Amino acid sequence: EIVLTQSPGTLSLSPGERATLSCRASQSVSSRYLAWYQQKPGQAPRLLIYGASSRATGIPDRFSGSGSGTDFTLTISRLEPEDFAVYYCQQYGSSPITFGQGTRLEIK
Amino acid sequence: EVQLVQSGAEVKKPGESLKISCKGSGYSFTTYWIGWVRQMPGKGLEWMGIIYPGDSDTRYSPSFQGQVTISADKSISTAYLQWSTLKASDTAMYYCARVVTYDSGGYYALYWGQGTLVTVSS
After folding, report:
1. Chain A 30-69, CB below 8 Å of chain B: which residues?
2. Are residues A108 and A81 in contact, defined by beta-carbon separation less than 8 angstroms?
3. Least C-beta-crowded within 10 Å: which of A45, A90, A97, B44?
């Protein structure tokens, strides 16, 4: 099983700042099969990124994904107030499909 | 517009059975896989399994094999998640999601239901 470790656990930033979230896999994720989701309190998750770097439909271009192998990054270029949420990575390159434990992005 | 509408919150006692539902609309229900995700209180996301409503082909994550049953009724565009004997540890939010699948067997969730909160308490 591929274990995904997200860091930091909590990230405190101000609107307008740049956020960099990390997702590290215990084994190489094949074909860059890595997705990112955003979850706000009381809401279902929302797909942001798939294929490590492809934005889902309707996702603003301030969200970008990068990485390959075992190291992946979600970058939010300029934080908007609505971006403060929990972010999860998920690998779908090998079974079982696994999520990271999440990074909480909070307002500083 | 693709929509997945889940059944309402449930409060059950340990040992009871339960079946929750997820109704799809706005797309061809039989041609896309539907998955279920568990989120325990204050915790992260876990895939439970997926089903192809067209032929009811079902694949369970190892942690959930034998613990739950995933099914679908394509005549009413509805997928189900079922427990025969609930435990307190089944208390969680459960989400259904329409997934994008790959030949490798991998998948991710593109559309999500609103979630069903299941509380199991004596």
Report:
1. 30-31, 33, 35, 37, 39, 44-47, 50, 56
2. no
3. B44
